[in-house]
Structure prediction request, 456 residues.
Amino acid sequence: MPDGVLEVLEPATEAVLQELPRADVEDVDRAVAAAAGAFPAWRAVSPGDRAALLQRLSDTIREHREELAELEARNAGKPIGDARGEMDMVAQVFSYYSGSPERLLGDTIPVAGGQAWTVREPLGVVGLIVPWNFPLTIAAWKLGPALAAGNTVVLKPAELTPLTAVRFAELCLEAGLPEGVVNVVVGPGSTCGARLVAHPGVAKIAFTGSTEVGRSIAAGAAQTIKRVTLELGGKSPNIIFADADLAAAAAAAPGAVFGNAGQDCCARSRILVQAGAVDEFMGHLEGAVTAIRVGDPLDESTEMGPLISASHRAGVASFVDDEAPVAFRGRAPDGPGFWFAPTVLCPVDAGARAAREEIFGPVAVVMTFDDEEEAVRLANDTIYGLSGSIWSQNGARALRVAHALDAGVLSINSNTSVRVSTPFGGFKQSGYGRELGPHALDAYTEVKSIFYATNV
Ligand code: NDP
Prediction:
């Protein structure tokens, strides 16, 4: 295969789904130039008109929901039902941020000798670098607030999953967004992504991916003092106290770690269970895990698809070698496809590699704790701090633990992490900055303070 052609695979079959031209550094420079050229006119679009365009984009996504969902299901290997839900969220993100252009409010501040007030200005050209696990969804979390605030963008999807981003760029034009406002470059992170980070004409990088690449982006962006937001890895705890509804906690736990085949930065991959409740909890959990239907992403009954690639599967498998304390496993198809059965490891020592590293696959570790203090200590004993869950029927305890955890997104008696209207992002090495909700706009605007002298 020549260097300039990208073969995009279908992880459930290992067959080539599509071939695309592979972009290089010159293509990135052209995309940045196009975005820079479109910026003055886009920022000048009146707030009401920008709102209407974003709402039209949301409607266009809804009209193409099935097409986009099928493309995402096949390219990322996710169950079609999940892919439809993701496309609904993409549409919802643009609808939510269509409310923002007319609500980018400032402050008036009392000062001597005149009037002082603040306005929020767009940053300019924003580079968006996104991963393969939720390709269009994670892109939309960045695109919505970026466009609403008046920025233009260059989006670099992961080479493994570029197809919905390419189609999205076409739908932007169909919805009436001017040429050059949304630019998509399909090329490798090591060249095209790195060029976006280094490019002096790019004002900000919004990145989701591994902590390792996030670190290099923060270092690279420092050269031009670019703004950066980073959504990185996780090793999130699912804390189950003995006084919880154990059947409900166990029924929900598989979805929280095996959803998207575990390729989810919010995966609750460390299940911490209070001693005394372990046997009952594990009994419920085994039934739930072995019942997971793993198979063809386009089959309506499928609950879990394959992993994204052969090399990623090899990495996940390294956590389940012959020595691994496998408590039980679900099933996965044989034959072509990057399949991996859902797997629960127990007991696992807090220092074990499986308990410390982000596996990013369908492998959960179960650990036990004696009391609230130990639960918090174990939960916080990680370099990450993205999300987590607390299951308890003692509301005061659940709130105490929620405040004590070093993580950006927590849920009590639930495993939800992401809502369009609430902020999402990490503590510690899970990154910085917040996406979604009202806070995301802060990361795509600069505050400008203006003083008007009245004593002249
Ligand atoms: P990466 O962090 O390598 O990839 C994420 C994005 O960054 C992709 O678009 C990639 O491009 C791009 N990229 C890679 N290198 C650079 C660079 N030097 N400069 C700029 N952009 C770059 O994640 P992987 O795909 O390798 O996954 C590895 C691990 O990362 C996973 O196993 C998981 O632990 C974690 N991860 C976490 C995610 C999250 O949601 N927080 C999402 C994905 C992964 P391309 O791939 O096209 O080369």
Remarks:
- The chain is about 40% helix and 20% strand.
- The mean pLDDT is 97.
- The CA atoms of residues 107 and 118 lie 5 Å apart.
- Residues 129-133, 156, 158-159, 188-190, 193-194, 197, 208-210, 213, 216-217, 231-233, 265, 358, 360 surround NDP (CB under 6 Å).
